[in-house]
Amino acid sequence: MQTLEQMVALRAHDAEFMAWKLATETTGAYINKNMFSVRMFSFPTATARNDVEGRNALLDHALRSVSVDGLFLQCGVGLGRSINFISSIVAREQTIHGFDSFEALPIERPFGRGKQEFSLGGELPRVNENVRLHKGWFDQSLPEFLKQNPQPIAFLFLDADDYKSSRTVLSSARDRLVPGAVIVFEEYFNFPGWEQFAHKAFQESMAETQLQYEYIGCAPRHYSVAVKLFART
Prior knowledge:
- The protein is an alpha/beta fold.
- It has a single domain, classed as Rossmann fold (3-Layer(aba) Sandwich).
- It has seven helices and eight strands; from the N terminus they run ααβαβαββαβαβαββ.
- Strands 1-7-8-6-5-2-3-4 form an eight-stranded mixed sheet, with helices on both faces.
- Strand 5 (153-158), helix 6 (163-173) and strand 6 (177-185) form a beta-alpha-beta unit.
- Helix 3 crosses helix 4 and helix 5 packs parallel to helix 6.
- The chain is globular, with a radius of gyration of 18 Å.
- It starts with a helix and ends with a strand.
């Protein structure tokens, strides 16, 4: 059995471990600079970087923070657990629209995940009655849906994993996002290279709009962040 000293020495030369450690440090610095006064949602029983309870508490807070009427969307549904959680909180008459290919992604995912992880082979997951699923790639299914549904977007849960998909969603939704709307990012920070994924896509998208945003919460033991939009002054 390895001694504690040996384990520490091995970790010191483990590049993957150090990459994750650095990601946590840069995330902590970002929180200290940009989110020091926002609500933090975490649970002491959470496993490292997988605080689903904290993420769900953040989702609940975000949903209660919406202050405009409109569409409720989730881009990236996977197994359907989070969209079912969201749909169980909102009013029964509120439809949650979920967008996903339910197939292998065209590119590798962050965190070393393969293209096939969470793929349902094109099959749809079981969802609650107030959920409507839209099967297809974001660049096809989302613009078509928005063309047929002219309402503003009141709530968007973005779980797109990679930069390109996140950018596609935010670009498609840009003209429908209005003051009072809330966006939750499933994977915003706290993983290696986080600055190049949804965070980058969001910052670029905001620079192209007449909107500003404020952070309203995060799950510091997970990856998730919530923002609320308001008019640029």
